[in-house]
Amino acid sequence: MKKIYMNQFLLAGTLTGCLFLASCDKEQEFTTGMPEQQLINSIELKVTSKLPLAVGMDSTIVYKVAPEDAADKEVMWTSSNEKVAAVSQNGTITALTEGEAVITVKPVIGFGVTDVTEKTITVSVIPEIIEVTDIRLTNKDDEGNPLTSLYPGDEQKLTYTLLPENHTYSYLTCTRQPETIHIEPREVVIIEGILALCDKKLRNMMDLKIFVDADPDERLIRVIQRDVIERGRTAEAVMERYTRVLKPMHLQFIEPCKRYADLIVPEGGNNKVAIDILTMYIKKHLKN
To answer: Residue 83 — φ and ψ, nearest 5°?
Structure first.
């Protein structure tokens, strides 16, 4: 009886081993058959690693995943501190209260996390955006004094400090002029600007918020006409700047403001119906 029992045990073990091997073979065939190139293997953020935002501001992060033929391009956004800065799953960051939060983005589907598949942005939420008001040249001569003159043929790379030192944003080539124009209170005050709806405090003072929407092609044509004719830039330089700066910044700062608008006007000044409606609205307030 003992011998028969052992034979049955060996037979059962052999069958189990065969089943296990067959299962492994099937799993191996399934795994190696998956197209690895269809998974996201890198994420590129079109923004600096440190992003200052004023309380109430929104910023949509522009990003790019690779490879372009990935089967699932969905990414997941998270915030280390939702009370300071919240982030939606389309990459829009909303600054809520003063403080700092780390925004993380990574693929929803992927094998492991690396420094190329997981990216972070440190968001500093501040009371207001502090602009650069002055530039101080910091070049010194051989004696350590401020450099004030050069001899013919000399070359010198200028160094500078942006003031105030606690600035959070710099226009540099598009600096705001120091002069201001005081506006007395009126029955109707119209505030115009591409970032007019970004500031929550300003939005709260508005009775009617309007977003004038323009086709991307129309915006590009306007930029080319302005920069080539008025500023003497080449068409190549304008296109490069539009692709590198203007378009990403529009998607990051201006486009998200559309959701705050009470009225979205397509076609801009060519929309006669919208202009008539706004005219009647203003006239109504003037009569009251």
So the answer is: -75, -25
